[in-house]
Amino acid sequence: MKWFTAALLTVAAVLGGLLIYRNEAQASAVLHGTSLDPAKLVGALPLTRDDGQAVNVGGPAAQVRLVFFGFTRCPDVCPLTLGLLAKTYNGLSAEQRKAVLVQLVSVDPQHDQPAVLRAYLNNFSADFRGFTGTPEKAKAAADAFYVLSTRAADGTILHGEQVAVLDRQGRFRRVYNGDSLRNGDLGADLPGMMKTY
Length: 197
Fold this sequence. Notes:
Blueprint: H1 2-27, E1 34-41, E2 45-49, E3 54-57, E4 64-70, H2 77-90, H3 94-97, E5 100-106, H4 114-121, E6 129-132, H5 135-144, E7 149-151, E8 157-159, E9 163-166, E10 171-176, H6 178-182, H7 185-196
Parallel strand pairs: 4-5, 5-6
Antiparallel strand pairs: 1-10, 2-3, 2-6, 4-9, 7-8, 9-10
């Protein structure tokens, strides 16, 4: 009987080890995008939300945040990126959508007033939130996420298409470029990130 108990304990230990290995392998599965290692803590950045409320972007939050820097008059990158984010967001279950927040931070704050942002974002999802502020505050937010935007001599605003992932502790963990969005990489990674971030 002792050998039977020992055999059962051995089988239980092996199965337990396999479960732990499987869970760790899933948690550490290769994610797409680019990892920031170590993750950068993004402190509270004071901006104005699309409902006119003074709030902070960055810092701890109840949701994983997907942060994109763009502007409402953008003719190409912004509508495409926000459309892809809406597709990704709509592909989540209702419960998963509660765990993620898509945020647009304006790189054209002089034009993108709260009501303008809200009307623009409603074209993609009523759940997406927009943020604006003074040019200095908008630049400070962009700098915190390593986003470069510049205004050309003709007034055109040039900016990137990257989407930053902030975890619930306010750490900038990953960044996805436009190819990662178009290929569905963010959508594939997002459910796992919502569990671990």
